[in-house]
Write a structure and sequence with these properties.
It contains 13 helices and twelve strands. It is an alpha/beta fold. It has two domains: about 200 residues, inorganic pyrophosphatase (n-terminal core), CATH 3.90.1640.10; about 120 residues, Roll (Diaminopimelate Epimerase, Chain A, domain 1). Strands 3-2-1-4-5-6 form a six-stranded parallel β-sheet, with helices on both faces. It has a six-stranded mixed β-sheet with strand order 7-8-9-10-12-11, sandwiched between helices. Helix 4 links the parallel strand 4 and strand 5. The longest helix has 16 residues. Bound molecules: manganese (II) ion (MN). Manganese (II) ion binds next to loops.
Length: about 325
Amino acid sequence: MPVATSVFDALRELLAGAERVVVSGHEQADGDAVGATAALRRHLELEGCTVTALLQEPLSPRYGFMEFVRHYEVYDPDRHDALIRAADVFVMCDLSSLGRLGRLQTAVEASEAATVCVDHHPCEDGGPASLNVLDPDARATGQVIWNYIDHVGGRVDREIAESVFVSLCTDTGWFRYPNTDAGVMKLAAQLADYRLDLPEIYRAIYQSNSAPMVRLLGHVARSMNEERDGRLVWAFIRRAFMQELGVARYDADPILDVLRSSGQVELVGLFTEREDGSVSVSLRSRGTPDVNLIARQYGGGGHVYAAGTVLANEDAVKDMVSTLRHAVGGDA
Ligand SMILES: [Mn+2]
């Protein structure tokens, strides 16, 4: 369901009355969180607002081509907690629960700032902010921002177009995932008209893996577990192995693309051991099972096709894998 006109109007009113706005996305920001944050930051700047865009980690080099690299700050409690406290409005993009704000959560909860959530995840409780601008039919949060800018008749420049395009192309897996449709392609064409260099954007986001990362892809392809006639594929990556290869942090998407490239697969699970022994989980599906429902059982969330969570330790992985087996059905 598209965002109601009255909700966009409420957002416009809130932002028009704000002097200082802080915009951010979820922790470990993906292309959509980055693109949405970047597009809204630029829109507010064009509107003459004092706006700060915060990310919790330095932007992945994949997005180094974006104009946004010159306009964001990496969250530092010493510098930014006071800023968040003094802000009139705090906007969180691409997240459906405050927990996804990670290190920013405490500062946001301590602030008097009005909170706004702009998102496209299915959200049962109406949303985590005081004003929730939600469109579960949107293919990306960046698309919700685009619709908002269109609604208020805001000026669009190349930076906004580039940012929204990054949201759209990453959340649709470069227009290949099941959420790709004619509407997405039409919007992409409209954005591309702002002199976007599409082959260069593709190369930067999808073909800039480091050599250790390519080796990791090979390892995962070799060690993956294939179960239930290939309908379930999952892999576990140990921290020590990543260190051995020289992979520090990575974007799971290229690995997930390898895991889901076989014809039979319906459900993909990627488990990555983190420094503190917890395990981050990324799930992907072709539509059934609904991985959002599975992730929610383990304290996470996402969409029907893509979801994730964090498990306390390796022991919890076994339990989750049996849930995944159950989800694709068939005999043990
Ligand atoms: Mn998204």
